[in-house]
Write a structure and sequence with these properties.
Organism: [Candida] railenensis
CATH architecture of the largest domain: 2-Layer Sandwich
Strand order of the largest sheet: 4-5-3-8
Helix content: 25-40%
Strand content: 15-25%
CATH topology of the largest domain: Alpha-Beta Plaits
Number of strands: 12
Mean pLDDT: 74
Structural class: alpha+beta
Shape: extended
Largest sheet: 4 strands, antiparallel
Protein name: Sporulation-specific protein 2
Low-confidence stretches: 1-36, 93-108, 116-121
Order of helices and strands: EEHHHHEHEEHEEEHEHEEHHE
Distance between the termini: 68 Å
CATH class of the largest domain: Alpha Beta
Number of helices: 10
């Protein structure tokens, strides 16, 4: 007699005494589905292994050698079934991964991106905001725009037959442009400085550069966006060597000297980076380090600026070699409320 370590058919204690010839009557071998119960196989295999490797059972009686030899082939059978089960699980994982690779997300590959963007029914991705009041800046408008990241933004003052201020928003993905268009036209949430702005799809009536067929994102730029996460915003971050972190729970007035960064001239940074394209805004980023973001009007400008700053020997490499640089989240990459 020995303790099998698994429940019997009557669901009694899991440590019920079972005879050596009761292996074929275990519940986990009753049907094909329960035959490959990993937990049951593991428990039973462990109990047999412990019993066969010891000289006495739990009652202190010496284990007969014939009983040990009788259980040896059954233990080998358990090992075989356990290996089959592991192999099945591995194959299921491989099959699931292969299925994911065969059916990627609509915009995860460059090929699918170009295919979806070139479809006539989903090609519209440029939105025009017309009749913008005087004194309203592009930063105030973008603060209310949502839906998804932008490829580029054009802002014109006194343009067209209407002689009005116009903003053209080039969304990267047509689906995001459609969501923002529905949000701005079906809700009353798109209000800038107290004015409800008019939103239209770009066509010949409101744009001098576009007609009913909006151009798709170029392949080289789509690769930067999809593979490298390129966005209009660049984030610069650098540690402050002289700043000390106080490990105390007491409230105190922060020292102005510890938060002052010498040699940081935002106007000079703007002058150095504006050569790559129009800069819409340079703002601070909440961080324990010195951190700020540069928001370009075009993704291309951010891509070129990042590569130049990271290229050894370039004019800006020495200036930003001590800074960490990455693409930041587009401020317009927000969900549309109510949509």
């Amino acid at each position: 007699m020995f303790h099998a370590g698994v429940p019997t058919a009557n669901n009694v204690s899991p440590y019920t005494c079972v005879s050596t010839n009761s292996y074929n009557t275990l519940p986990h071998l009753a049907t094909d589905s329960s035959r490959y119960s990993k937990a049951g196989l593991r428990r039973f295999a462990r109990s047999i292994y412990q019993w066969s490797s010891s000289k006495v059972d739990d009652d202190g009686e010496e284990i007969d050698k014939s009983d040990r030899q009788q259980l040896q082939p059954k233990f080998q059978t358990l090992q075989t079934e356990f290996s089959k089960l592991n192999f099945r699980e591995d194959m299921n994982i491989k099959t699931a991964l292969a299925k994911c690779n065969r059916q990627p997300d609509s915009f995860t590959t460059l090929k699918n991106f170009e295919k979806v963007s070139s479809h006539p029914s989903s090609q519209k991705r440029v939105i025009v905001i017309v009749n913008i009041p005087e004194g309203t800046g592009i930063s105030s408008i973008l603060a209310q725009v949502c839906g998804g990241p932008m490829e580029r933004i054009n802002f014109y003052r006194g343009r067209g037959n209407r002689n009005a201020n116009v903003a053209e928003l080039y969304f990267i993905f047509p689906e995001h442009a459609r969501k923002f268009h529905e949000y701005a036209t079906t809700t009353r949430f798109f209000i800038v400085n107290g004015y409800a702005l008019q939103v239209e799809w770009a066509d010949r009536s409101n744009s001098e550069d576009l007609d009913e067929f909006h151009p798709q994102v170029p392949s080289y730029l789509a690769k930067e966006i999809l593979h490298w996460g390129a966005r209009r915003c660049l984030v610069f971050s650098k540690a402050v060597p002289s700043k000390t972190i106080k490990n105390t729970n007491q409230l105190h007035y922060p020292s102005a000297k510890s938060h002052f960064t010498k040699g940081l001239d935002i106007s000079q940074i703007r002058k150095d980076l504006v050569v790559f394209g129009e800069i819409l805004d340079i703002g601070p980023v909440i961080s324990r380090k010195v951190c700020f973001s540069v928001q370009f009007a075009d993704v291309r400008s951010a891509v070129v600026a990042k590569k130049v700053c990271e290229t050894v020997g370039s004019p800006l490499y020495d200036q930003f070699k001590d800074w960490s640089l990455w693409y930041g989240k587009d401020p317009t990459d927000l969900p549309c409320i109510g949509k």
